[in-house]
Amino acid sequence: MAKKRVAAIVKINLPAGAATPAPPVGTALGPHGIQTMEFVKQYNAATESQRGQVIPVEVTIFEDRSFSFILKTPPTSELLKQAAGLDKGSATNRRELVGTVTRDQVEEIAKTKMPDLNAFDLESAMKQVVGTADSMGITVAE
C-alpha cells in the first residue's frame, strides 16, 4: 500500500466531548473538503472522558480527503486557571495578580504537559509552567 500524501495539517483547540461542526471546526476543515460531522463524531468520542477541558487537536488531512488526528494535552493556561480556580487570567500581568498556585500544583501541571513540551526534564517543564503563570498574573507560592 502506498503512503498517502498529506495535503494539510490543521491545529484547533476544542472543548472535549462537546465539539460542533460550527466554527471553528467548520471554518478550519471545510476548505480542505473534510466532512466536518464525521470529524466531530470521532473527536467527541475520543475526548468524552475529558469533558470540561479544552483539548487541542492536530488534524492531518490527506489528498484523498481522508484525515487522522492526534490529541494533545490541554493548554498550560487552562490547567493553571483550573488549579487557581479562575475564569480568566489577568489583563495586566505583573501589575494585577489574580490568583496563586502551589509548587506542587505547578509540578503536577508540568507532568501533565511533559509530552507536548520541549523540555528535557521536569525542572525545565516546571520553569515553562511558572513562566506561563507569571504572564497570566498568577503567583507561585513556595
TrEMBL record:
InterPro entries: Ribosomal_uL11, Ribosomal_uL11_bac-typ, Ribosomal_uL11_C, Ribosomal_uL11_C_sf, Ribosomal_uL11_CS, Ribosomal_uL11_N, Ribosomal_uL11_N_sf
SUPFAM superfamilies xrefs: Ribosomal L11/L12e N-terminal domain (SSF54747), Ribosomal protein L11, C-terminal domain (SSF46906)
Signal peptide residues on this chain, from the entry's feature table: 1-18
Domain Large ribosomal subunit protein uL11 C-terminal: 72-140
Gene3D superfamilies the record matches: Ribosomal protein L11, C-terminal domain, Ribosomal protein L11/L12, N-terminal domain
Sorted UniProt keywords: Methylation, Ribonucleoprotein, Ribosomal protein, RNA-binding, rRNA-binding, Signal
A single cellular component GO annotation: cytosolic large ribosomal subunit
PTM per Swiss-Prot/TrEMBL: One or more lysine residues are methylated.
GO molecular function, one term: large ribosomal subunit rRNA binding
Domain Large ribosomal subunit protein uL11 N-terminal: 10-67
GO biological process: translation
Pfam families the record matches: Ribosomal_L11, Ribosomal_L11_N
Subunit architecture: Part of the ribosomal stalk of the 50S ribosomal subunit. Interacts with L10 and the large rRNA to form the base of the stalk. L10 forms an elongated spine to which L12 dimers bind in a sequential fashion forming a multimeric L10(L12)X complex.
Role noted for this protein: Forms part of the ribosomal stalk which helps the ribosome interact with GTP-bound translation factors.
Family affiliation: Belongs to the universal ribosomal protein uL11 family.
PANTHER family membership: 60S RIBOSOMAL PROTEIN L12, LARGE RIBOSOMAL SUBUNIT PROTEIN UL11M
Protein name: Large ribosomal subunit protein uL11
Protein source organism: Ferrimicrobium acidiphilum DSM 19497
